[in-house]
Design goal:
It is a single chain. This protein folds into two domains: 127 residues, Rossmann fold; 97 residues, Arc Repressor Mutant, subunit A (Orthogonal Bundle), CATH 1.10.10.10. 42% of the residues lie in helices and 19% in strands. It is built from ten helices and twelve strands. The chain has a five-stranded parallel β-sheet with strand order 2-1-3-4-5, with helices on both faces. It has a four-stranded antiparallel β-sheet with strand order 6-7-8-9. Helix 8 packs across helix 10. The protein is elongated, with a radius of gyration of 20 Å. 31% of the residues are buried.
Length: 242
């Protein structure tokens, strides 16, 4: 059985690497977060990933040194993240083996597109490891299900479709576009274009209750779409296991 592509994110700034990591997990990738060259080497010693996303500007060891060392030991695709790196750094990075680069702060959809492109180019191993369904930008993980934004369908891991009303899909689409953000009922209605006679606070609560029954591992204790007291709702793409 093919696995989800394994991506290692290397960045000394925790918020940056967590934001990228959460986004990629939401779209079906397996992700490991590292804060520098030392933790990266420890990770690849036990398992070689399908791709590394590496920040060039880190205080302890610069990204170019890490790329040179990495490419000297294993054959793994590398995408450089560059915030203040000069054009010459980008050129040197590409010359010593990096496969692509993207400027920080990066547009997450562009980064994912570049990752998919590099995985496609990096040979049969990556092709086998990156089935279209796993890394499709149209699929978003919601707890026990996958939301197919293109087909407007909700499916489980076996591919079985679960009924979804238009209003439920509208809310899930809004959550998919705004992960880890607290959204008030008013904002949810506005973003979902749901301003009709039925669209009042209570209607949102009822729709979300129905959605939770379909996607939450434990609907009585929702962890995917959480209620924020006095604020509204928040979609957690990655539910941490206790």
């Amino acid at each position: 059985m093919s696995h989800s592509p394994h991506i290692i994110i290397v960045d000394d700034e925790a918020p940056a690497r967590e934001m990228v990591g959460d986004y990629l997990k939401m779209h079906g990738f397996a992700v490991t977060l590292c804060d520098g060259g030392k933790s990266l080497r420890a990770e690849i010693a036990s398992k070689v990933p399908d791709l590394v996303v590496l920040d060039l500007n880190m205080p302890e060891e610069d990204g170019l040194s890490i790329i040179r060392d990495l490419k000297g030991r294993i054959n793994v695709p590398v995408i450089m993240l560059t915030a203040t790196a000069s054009p010459i750094d980008r050129v040197v990075g590409l010359e010593i083996g990096a496969d692509d680069y993207i400027a920080k702060p990066c547009e997450l959809r562009e980064l994912m597109a570049r990752i998919r492109s590099v995985l496609r180019r990096s040979g049969p191993k990556a092709e086998a490891a990156a089935p279209a369904r796993s890394i499709s930008e149209h699929l978003v993980r919601f707890g026990t299900k996958w939301l197919d934004l293109e087909a407007q369908a909700l499916r489980d891991d076996e591919g079985n479709e679960h009924p979804l009303t238009a209003s439920e899909f509208g809310l899930l689409k809004v959550f998919a576009a705004n992960p880890k953000r607290v959204l008030s009922r008013e904002r949810l209605l506005e973003l979902a274009n749901a301003r009709d006679a039925e669209a009042f606070d209570r209607a949102v609560d009822l729709r979300i209750m129905r959605i939770r029954r379909k996607i939450e591992p434990d609907p009585a204790h929702p962890a995917v779409i959480r209620t924020i007291r006095g604020g509204g709702y928040l979609f957690s793409p990655v539910v941490e296991k206790a």
